[in-house]
Predict the structure of Glycine dehydrogenase (decarboxylating).
Amino acid sequence: MRRAERAGAFADRHIGTDAAAQRTMLDALGYDSVDALVEAAVPASIHAKPRSTSDIPPAATEAEALAELRALASQNRVARPMIGLGYSDTFTPSVIARNVLENPSWYTAYTPYQPEISQGRLEALINFQTMVTDLTGLATANASMLDEATAVVEGMLVARRGSKSASNVFVVDADALPQTRALLAHRAAAVGIELVELDLAHGATLPDECFGVLVQYPGASGRVWDPAGVVDAAHVAGALVVVAADLLALTLLRSPGSLGADVAVGTTQRFGVPLGFGGPHAGYMAVRQGLERQLPGRLVGVSQDAAGHPAYRLALQTREQHIRREKATSNICTSQVLLAVMASMYAVYHGPDGLRAIATDVAKKAEALAERLRSYGLSLRTDSFFDTIRVATPGPSRRVIERARERGYQLAWIDDATVGVSVDETTTADDLAAVAWAFGLPEGEFAGAGAQGERELPFGDAAPLAAVPAELHRLEEFLTHPVFNSHRSETAMMRYLKQLSDRDYALDRGMIPLGSCTMKLNAATEMAAVSWPEFSRVHPFAPEEDVHGYLAMIEQLEVWLAEVTGYDAVSLQPNAGSQGELAGLMAIRGYHRANGDLARTVCLIPSSAHGTNAASAVLAGMRVVVVACDDAGNVDLDDLRAKIATHADELAALMITYPSTHGVYEHDVLEITQAVHDAGGQVYVDGANLNALLGYARFGDLGGDVSHLNLHKTFAIPHGGGGPGVGPVAAKAHLAPYLPSHPFSQRRDHPGGVFDGGPISAAPHGSAGILPISWAYVRMMGAEGLRRATAAAVLSANYIAFRLRDHFPVLYAGEAGLVAHECILDLRPLRDATGVTVDDVAKRLIDYGFHAPTMSFPVAGTLMVEPTESEDLGEIERFIEAMIAIKAEADRVAAGEWPQADNPLVNAPHTAESVVAGEWEHPYSRETAVYPVHALVRTKYWPPVRRIDQAYGDRNLVCACPPIEAFA
């Protein structure tokens, strides 16, 4: 078999429609070939020119791609990371690794906007929120943040909103994590916040006026001190206090809430989530009572379903950024659900006693090491600590670090005379002995012998928190809810995880036809390397010589992404699409400021844009001016020209999505971008819909200067129930110097230039641990496979639009009446004729075995459908038949056969209980309710709850694990 034939195998498996199916679809649409269809849809003026050479190698087979990844992984050194600074090695319980991290029932699920089919995920997130509120001692936590440093930034913004002070000053603890301080500096400058750094632990006095104070607890140095006095002083000044706290330490230390904190933030990474060279990890945020409605991101609460049973849902959904737009106070529209689930299940599995035991063990190790070093005359920078010590070295600190590295350990260089050491749950007595040796202590002094002849440094008798004041020792109980005290055996844990996943709908059950939020196949081969220790157990601040494989993989992926987008440089640091947007706008801001154009602060955004666009612009220090769209959903050129003329001297950027948010390839895109450039502005092309362009057109050729890309959409990283995501930012050469940098980056130079724009996430390379997924996807698809995927997605979307347009009007279309990779079905005429709403249709689709398409975005009363290239014709036809059948049901309501208040649509979804318990009093049969098509008899997905009352949940906000009695 020729290599080319073998290499095509993966694309054939990734793309759901084969040649015969595509022929059927093309015949219906009247096109001779897939290429002919896409080239008719994509304006001829933007077709990509053929390339004589490509940086993307020919497609590899799955075996070849895994072999290349193994070779890259072998270039990473799996050392024992004891660097700390917010990242700790951890044991992921195997039952969680196998049943969550490596389970498509969890990682292929979508954001729980359809709560009736997301009850498992939502319960796991309620567990997460309860875990965080219990440990922090605060009233309400959200469903996770992106990482600790960005959570601190969000905490600063919460303090600004919640404080009554008119000051622009935010006080930063000098002992805050260095990456956090760097990110704060970058983000604060854009929104006019002045940072004042103070050594709070040593009694520095707060300024007379400030709106907020950040305290790191314990500090980056490891120091544990009582911040109660600072908290009181801040409150007197009218400021809110944000405490960045280590959750494991909080099992032994007083909670931030008990100390008077208003906000607590941090990371849950050390709760069983692998290091992954920096992510993805679930940050957290909790607030005191009264600040709930200031929380960014997502909040899970408890409401009730149509039968009055408790049911979980996303609460306060009006805070979502696509609704608040330019009035948004945060651009966070996502979270890190998969990792939050892992962290919450770590707490469920270990329980309060187990977590306390792990923390005590960690504290004993730190104390034993400290005591041994002190006994040999070495001094510590602080005597009060939890897991981290800083040691004064009699000679150059680099020598200690090199000696440790000889034994396979990574320590933290602090300065020329100080070394930092952090211990964790994986640290052994042998590890402690090796570190002590690195500081010059003789091996022969240690008691016992390790497994490999290494002398051990025992820690069992050490006193944890020996120098921590007694008033800081935790007395409060935590994790008292039964869920944290009921699943100790692996059998019980496995069954609990299975029960939760069975309540959910993910891609392993069927199609999730969401427009604007591509849900494509996340192939097993792409996922395989994520769990390899050479990728998963690497500290983000590891020295360059230990991460050559990661850096090589990252550089290759940057080059490949630059080629397919038509840009010169790519930064993979942003760990969400919203953060990629922000990074791109910050690059534009940096460019204008470097050119002396300080007045260029206006960002033009079409009314159809993703809501995070406007929020990101505000957070980049820009002023949003909305541009109208015409009746076809395109940018209104006359309004655009008028807005440009009005704001010519202050125009910073235009943000557009291409294809448009309405799912259409705009014909005038080159004219639009040229008009902005002529006025001195930059063009930001939102990359959310890149999967409709790959191989056919490139953002850089459209006139784009910068874009973010969604690797969790176009490049096959799973959504994980609402995270993880990666949102790299790509730019032309003139903006490359302003792309994200990082104080601990192993390399500042990238294939597209040297980046110096300031950090956008906590880790130098963002969520690097899942980059092997996108690397494998591109490597196995090759350039031609990526083009084929685009064509298949566009074909499927147009086939659905064609088949359904006689039943539901297709709201927008472009060239030749074609849509892009998604289509908008207008349900408003159905509502007007029958009284059946878009919500009714969405919930009835559950009875047919489907996740609903995107509801009421970008147009209220519509469904946006995106089948993706992954679905086969059988599943596409099943969806089409379901939609036609639902239309027929609505017509029966209109005809009076079923009452408007009692029919299968308004009562959907139907649970098993609803059709077997009690008398059946509805005017339609039980079979119609739950088996509207015969094929469901053998494959039925049973929703666990009936339709959830959203308004009730917002009026009665409950965000912690409800008591068991609530479900009785």
